[in-house]
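Example 3.
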Amino acid sequence: MKSLTSEIITLLKTKSYPVTVKTIVEGYPATTPTYPAIIVQEIDNISNKTLLGEELYSTLTYDIEIYARDMIVATVATSSKTTVKGIASMVDTTLNSYYGFKRTVASLVPYSVDNTVSRYLLRYTVILDNKNNITYR
Amino acid sequence: MNKTIVLGNEGIKALKNSLLAINTQLENTIDACEREIAEYGANALSELAPISAKYDGNYSGSVSFNPTENGYEVSYEGEQVAYIEFGTGITGEGYYPDSDILNQANWRYDINDHGLGGWVYKDHRTGEEFHSVGMVGEKPVYRAYRKTEQELPNIVKRVLNEKFN
């Protein structure tokens, strides 16, 4: 069973965002993350086609959550919503151009415990050719 | 031996009428497929979504499907459905002895240091207080989508059989 989580995190760490993203990790971190933060989670990994016990294709689904507070960017006050949307745009461009991920959700979602933090969720699905490492929409 | 077959005016008219009839039948079939798929999706969502009473302290939503300009839309609506679908965000820390779901999700982080104690919130409509340690996304909409996607060939096959048999 293949997963792209680590690869996605490595890729996202190489990118430049409208603001400096201070945390990019898989799942919920054990220590308090510094905002802005990107959380990558594989929420589904379904076997699509197997041959002689070998998994040929699998359908992977990822949730990418972006968290940020209001902040000052180059002396300009920037709202948390603007920040998460700007980061989300870069994440989206990256995952589309590199993997051809199919985006199924892109939305601000509520964050239950801290209303000074904005939360933006991107959800992607992709079919992975496990043998040749090719992704299909 | 060569043969020439000429399709006369009557024949062309009959052919055109047959094609138009098939066209109408196909349109009806597509409409029926769309409706059946939406209905299946709504039923799947109803089975997967917590739509009755309260769920982990949250109010649940209602499922419906309605025709739109381009087909049908299956909706899951309610004040708390975003939490049910996407979870409450990065909350909670440590091991939760009473929740397999939270532990399986490796629920670790706690923004306001609630720890195992979680937090209490007041329902703004009833004033009733609830205790919560947050929740992971149950993803009923996503799971219903996957279930419907898997059933899609069977739905289409069934509708085609009904319409053309």
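The radius of gyration of chain A is 16 Å. Chain A has one domain: 5-136.
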